[in-house]
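Researcher: Please translate sequence to structure tokens.
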Amino acid sequence: MPTLATGLQRLDIGQFRNIETARLAFSPGLNLITGPNAAGKTSLLEAVYCLGRVHSFRTTDPNQLIRHGQAAFRVVGRVGLPDGRVIPVGIQRRPGNYEIHLEGRPLRRLSDLAGRFPIHLMTGDTANILSGGPRYRRQSLDWALFHVEPGYRNAWQRYARALRQRNAALRDHAPAVQVTVWDSELVSAATSLDRLRRDYLKDLSGHVARELTLLLPGKKFAIRYQSGWAKDLTLAEALKKSLDKDRSRGYTQPGPHRADYAVLVDDWPARTHYSRGQQKSIIVGFLLGQVKLQHALEVPKGIFLLDDLASELDVEYQARVLSGLAELETQVFVTAIDTRSLDLGAWPVHKRFHVEHGTIREVVQ
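Model: Translation complete:
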């Protein structure tokens, strides 16, 4: 189990969703959150997620997070780091304005927060990694690489800047020479992005395969990566071939911004050939594999949020998921309507919380 010095130690919530106030101290291991539907269980996870990511996983409108009739919400946490330090993290939202503080100072870059307080999330919507469009998979890939590969952020920023400039020239119907002047920088940054993505997915595949051996015994797992341009061309060749169409449409088509990957189980796409329950197990295995890879690379593991554990998972699969999470030796938050059927043998250190009408109390065991 993680030591008391790591993870989210304490959380103070004020006027967030249906939670008026809450002051909570968490277990460094498992934290079980129970209660009826619409009680506020997911809102608690959302507050934790918002503290680490500065946005919600349920809405794109941050003003919806402010409790009805209130002027602002406030979430403050104390986060234990692997080096033994405990740092404060705070976020306040008023309509149209965020105030974010890390270690007592205004936050300069979101990446600074993500590096100290990484969060892995599993909800019903996380199935978008399998069933959603390529954008969801690129986002998950970029987020992971920001944490494990120091050079990725620079390559991504270089590529995004060159792509914006090239697209601006295309939208302005500029002469071809003013469009292609950005191709060299675009190709240079794209080459770095593509290599780092391929290397990461290659390393990740082995870790995910081991997790799925426990969650889905007998299944063979693989990841098939698509770079975002025709595999029989270099990106420079693809940009040249696509120039007329790009000028007609006003944006750049080939490149890493159109990359995708497919999750295959027994050589079949997971999103089309497996039940929703099996897909959820595949996604859990995928996320567990990401955390295992971070651990192997000595990157902070962060915490794991799992919303509605029992949804579409039978008791046997629930036990396998909880056992896999326990092996991570990281802090975990799990919501469920009823946890009486859960096998907590792998979790000697855990706490229970019950939520009712937005009021959260620790259940003394």
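Researcher: Any highlights?
Model: The longest strand covers residues 7-16.
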